[in-house]
Amino acid sequence: MKNQPAPGMKDLISEASIYRRLEDDFFKILKLESFKEIRTPILESKNLFSRSVGDASDIVEKEMFETKTDDLVLRPENTAAIVRAVLNDYKVPAKFGYFAPQFRKERPQLGRLRQFYQYGFEMFGDTAPQSEIESLLLISKLYKKWGLSNYEIQVNYLGSGDERSEYLNKLTKYFTDNKDKLSDNSKKRLEKNVLRILDSKEKEDQDLISSAPLILDSLSESSLKLWNQFLEIAKAVNLKLVINPRLVRGLDYYTGMVFEVVDTSGKLGSQKALGGGGRYDNLCKELGGMETPAFGFAGGVERLIIALDLKDESVVLNKFGLMTTELEVLETFVKIKEKNSDIYVDILFNTNLGFKKMFKRADKNNLDYVLIVGKDELLSNSFKVKNLKTGEEKEYTGLSDNLLLKNYK
Ligand code: HAM
Q1: Whose CA is nearest to atom 8 of ligand 1?
Q2: pTM of the model
Q3: Distance in angstroms (rounded) separating the CA atoms of residues 88 and 82
Q4: CA Rg, the chain, in Å?
């Protein structure tokens, strides 16, 4: 049996062209908004994610690929590592973009892989609602560029400090009072991270979740003011948002506004989240740095490809063959090849093979045209050009180093 990639992982051959184009588009747009590219290691210490994404998150609890001996993991996401990198040697304000593979040991299905790519960005130094608005506008710009229209942006506000703990107390009391109605999974979440119950997809939890207390009702006056200000500015700049008061996201580091871009085309089945992000003002301090306002987003490349129905985008270059049996012509051929760098030029040369065999090879290489110099052409300083798709052949005089192949198609 042939070897296959590990479950949830893919060899990208024809799809690689799509990734290349999306990555190029992504950085072109981010550059205009003054972002720098960042690349962090694929292997990270496990501790980095326990302290940021959170011990009780699904990611840290069960989805990381770990080494046996030295507490290293394949990174499940990029935000924590970027915070680490920025704290070590960069001054804020700073804005970084990435297009990079991430790894999560999830059950593979449509739109859910174990190695997947994220296009994402992180912004450091701006308080709410500056980065919130800037990010959502940037995401809308990216999706417009990519021709994505069937999506909605869901937003919620998680609050911070006292209001967050007050809300968590309310929520814990509510679910504890109704514990016997909760699914087994959510009973565990009640002990570890009550907020995650709101993320539950289990049927038996849905009624309880729909009447659970909402964070928006526990916000302090100053938070409410910020939230409303954000909504007002979003409206003024024409951002269409859907408030989802139960959106909590599965990662611990968020503080204020969180959001998710949700596919509405139905093409993604249950993996509808095209991307997500939010504010994480406490993370820099929690990872040992100065208190720094921060905000970020990451989207899944594979889900974007499904939503956009993208197919192999390899550009088929015109393929020209330079075919000769004559050694004296080779130097000229090499120079012609150098001159024609925008065309795929194959030099077919073999004094032993003869033209018949060379034509066979030209066919195998799927060449469109061949320029032919045989003994007769060499003597009369001429060459032939044959269109291999139609069989049409023309003769020209004067083979020179400066020949531009495009002129002979
Ligand atoms: P996340 O919601 O865990 O957030 O992932 C962001 C996006 O990555 C998801 O919405 C989805 O499109 C894609 N994704 C996640 N897991 C998979 C998977 N197994 N297979 C395919 N695609 C997947 C984060 O990762 C945060 N770091 C986002 C962020 C940046 N927050 C602030 N800054």
Answers
A1: 300
A2: 0.88
A3: 10
A4: 29
Span 74-131, pLDDT tens digits: 999 999 999 999 999 778 899 999 999 999 999 999 999 999 999 999 999 999 999 9
Ligand 1: distance of its center to the CA of 399 in Å? 57
What's the one-letter identity of residue 266? G
Ligand 1 pocket test: pick from 99, 102, 121, 123 the residue with the most ligand atoms within 8 Å of its Cβ: 102
Identify whether the C-beta of residue 51 lies closer than 8 Å to the C-beta of residue 286. yes
Give the C-alpha separation, 249 to 277, whole Å.
Answer: 8
In this structure, which amino acid lies at residue 184? D
Which pLDDT tens digit goes with each residue over 23-61? Answer: 999 999 999 999 999 999 999 999 999 999 998 888 999
393-to-278, 318, 340, 384, 409 alpha-carbon distances in Å: 63, 17, 21, 7, 10
Q: Which residues pair with 249 in a beta bridge?
A: none
| Distance, CA of 57 to CA of 195 (rounded, Å) | 10
Q: Is 409 exposed, middle or buried (0-12, 13-18, 19+ CB in 10 A)?
A: exposed
pLDDT tens for each residue of 324-364: 999 999 999 999 999 998 889 999 987 777 899 999 999 99
List, chain by chain if needed, residues with CB within 6 Å of any ligand 1 atom.
Answer: 77-79, 104, 106, 111-113, 116, 118, 120, 122, 273-278, 296-300, 302-303
Q: Which residues pair with 117 in a beta bridge?
A: 101
Tokens 């207390």 appear where?
Answer: 213
| Tokens representing residue 30 in the block | 């981010």
Give the nearest ligand 1 atom to 118 CA: 8
